[in-house]
C-alpha cells in the first residue's frame, strides 16, 4: 500500500515561465484544502540539496497569481546530476518529512525527477512549465501562451518601424532546441520566413524567398529566427549573409531575449497552471507517482515520465505550410 502523504514539497526548476507563481499558488491552496502540509523549495533541485525551504500555507501565496517569475526562484542544478547531490536532497526531504514532490519545469526537470524518484522511492509528479512548449504529453506548457503574446506584441512594434523605413528585420526568439515559439508567433505576426531548429529550410531558399518578396512589391519584411535554428548561423550571421547576397535590402537585427520569459501571465496560463496543480496534488494523494500532468484536447491528463520523455514533441507541419502560403 502507498505511504500516506502528509507533506508535499514543490519547486520550480529550469528557465522560469509566466504562470509558475499561479502554479505554486494552486499547489499551496490545494494542499490547504486537503489538509496536507506544503513546503516550497527555493531554486529548484539546488534548494532541495541545500535544504533551502519555506512553509507555504494558503495565505503565503496571496496576490501572486498575476505575477511573472517564480517566488520560489529557479535554477538549473549541476549538483543534482550527481549521485552525491541527489543523496543530499533525499536526506533533506527525509529530515523535514516531505513525502512527495511536485516538480514544475521542463523535460530536464522531469528527467531529474524520474531518476530521483526511482533511486529514493519518493513519489513525484511533474507539471510542465516552460515557455518552449516542447514537452510531449501536453498541448500546452505553462508560460508558452504568455511568451507568444509578448513576442507578437514586440514583432508588431518592429513591423511598424520596418515598414516606415522599408527594412528587412531578422528577429531572434527563444527556443534553443524547439521552434514552437518561432513558428506560432511567426504565423501570428505574419512573418515572411520562419527559421526553426526542427527544419533546415536552407540558405538558398531564404534568399529565393526574399527575392520573391521584393519582386512582388513588398517593401519591408520580417524573418523570425529561433535561437537554435537548423541553418546553423546565428541571427547576426544570417543578416550579414543576406546583406552580402541581396545588397538591395536594408537589414536590421533584433534579439528579443529574456523579455520573453517575463511579464504577467495570460488568463490561459493562469488557468492551466491552476488545473495542472490541483490535479498534481490529487494524484499524489491517490497514491500516483512518476507521472506528468498535461492538457490534451482541453482535458487534464497524465502521462508516465518514461513514456513522455521518450516521445518528444514534433512541430506542426500544417503551420509551416500555412506560413508558406500566407507569405506570398
Ligand atoms: O528553456 C527555456 C529557455 O528560455 C529557452 O527558450 C532558452 O534557450 C533558454 O531557456 C535560455 O536559458 P538561460 O536563461 O539559461 O539563458
Give the tags.
single chain; elongated; seven-stranded mixed beta sheet; binds 6-O-phosphono-beta-D-fructofuranose; alpha/beta; 328 residues; 42% helix; 11 helices
Low-pLDDT parts are none
The tally of beta strands, per DSSP, is: 11
- Helix residue percentage: 40-55%
Order of helices and strands: EHEHEHEHEHEHEHEHEHEEHH
> How are the strands of the biggest sheet laid out side by side?
3-2-1-4-5-10-11
Oligomeric state of shown chains = single chain
Determine the number of helices (DSSP H or I, runs of at least 4 residues): 11
Sheet having the most strands: 7 strands, mixed
Give the CA-based shape. Answer: elongated
By secondary-structure content and strand pairing, the structural class works out as alpha/beta
The value of Rg in angstroms is: 22 Å
Through-space gap between termini = 62 Å
* Bound small-molecule species: 6-O-phosphono-beta-D-fructofuranose
Task: Work out the strand percent.
Answer: 15-25%
- The average pLDDT value, as a whole number, equals 95
Give an account of the 3D structure.
With 328 residues, this protein is α/β, with parallel strands linked by helices. It has helices spanning 20-33, 45-50, 83-95, 107-120, 144-165, 180-188, 203-215, 235-245, 267-285, 305-311, 317-326; strands at residues 7-12, 37-41, 53-55, 100-105, 124-128, 168-173, 193-195, 221-226, 251-255, 291-296, 299-304. A seven-stranded mixed beta sheet has the order 3-2-1-4-5-10-11, with helices on both faces. Strand 1, helix 1 (20-33) and strand 2 (37-41) form a beta-alpha-beta unit. The radius of gyration is 22 Å and the shape is elongated. The relative contact order is 0.17. Bound molecules: 6-O-phosphono-beta-D-fructofuranose.
Amino acid at each position: 500500500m502507498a505511504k500516506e502523504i502528509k507533506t508535499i514539497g514543490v519547486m520550480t526548476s529550469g528557465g522560469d515561465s509566466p504562470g509558475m507563481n499561479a502554479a505554486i499558488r494552486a499547489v499551496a491552496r490545494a494542499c490547504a484544502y486537503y489538509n496536507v502540509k506544503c513546503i516550497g523549495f527555493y531554486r529548484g533541485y539546488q534548494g532541495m540539496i541545500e535544504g533551502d525551504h519555506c512553509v507555504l500555507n494558503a495565505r503565503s501565496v496571496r496576490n501572486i497569481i498575476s505575477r511573472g517569475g517564480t517566488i520560489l526562484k529557479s535554477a538549473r542544478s549541476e549538483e543534482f546530476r550527481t549521485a552525491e547531490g541527489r543523496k543530499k536532497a533525499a536526506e533533506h526531504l527525509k529530515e523535514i518529512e516531505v513525502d512527495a514532490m511536485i516538480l514544475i519545469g521542463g523535460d530536464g526537470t522531469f528527467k531529474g525527477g524520474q531518476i530521483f524518484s526511482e533511486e529514493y522511492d519518493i513519489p513525484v509528479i511533474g507539471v510542465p512549465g516552460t515557455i518552449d512548449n516542447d514537452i510531449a504529453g501536453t498541448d500546452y506548457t505553462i508560460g508558452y501562451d504568455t511568451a507568444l503574446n509578448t513576442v507578437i506584441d514586440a514583432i508588431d512594434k518592429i513591423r511598424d518601424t520596418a515598414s516606415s523605413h522599408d527594412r528587412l528585420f531578422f528577429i531572434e526568439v527563444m527556443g534553443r532546441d524547439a521552434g514552437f515559439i518561432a513558428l506560432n508567433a511567426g504565423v501570428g505576426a505574419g512573418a515572411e520566413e520562419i527559421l526553426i531548429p526542427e527544419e533546415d529550410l536552407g540558405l538558398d531558399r531564404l534568399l529565393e524567398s526574399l527575392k520573391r518578396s521584393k519582386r512582388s512589391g513588398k517593401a519591408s519584411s520580417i524573418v523570425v529566427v529561433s535561437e537554435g535554428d537548423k541553418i546553423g548561423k546565428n541571427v547576426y550571421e544570417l543578416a550579414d549573409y543576406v546583406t552580402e547576397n541581396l545588397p538591395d535590402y536594408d537589414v536590421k537585427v533584433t534579439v528579443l531575449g529574456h523579455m520573453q520569459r517575463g511579464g504577467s501571465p495570460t488568463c490561459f496560463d493562469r488557468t492551466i497552471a491552476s488545473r495542472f496543480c490541483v490535479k498534481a496534488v490529487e494524484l499524489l494523494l491517490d497514491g500516483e507517482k512518476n507521472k506528468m500532468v498535461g492538457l490534451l484536447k482541453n482535458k487534464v491528463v497524465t502521462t508516465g515520465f518514461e513514456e513522455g520523455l521518450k516521445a518528444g514533441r514534433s512541430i506542426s507541419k500544417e503551420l509551416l505550410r500555412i506560413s508558406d502560403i500566407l507569405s506570398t
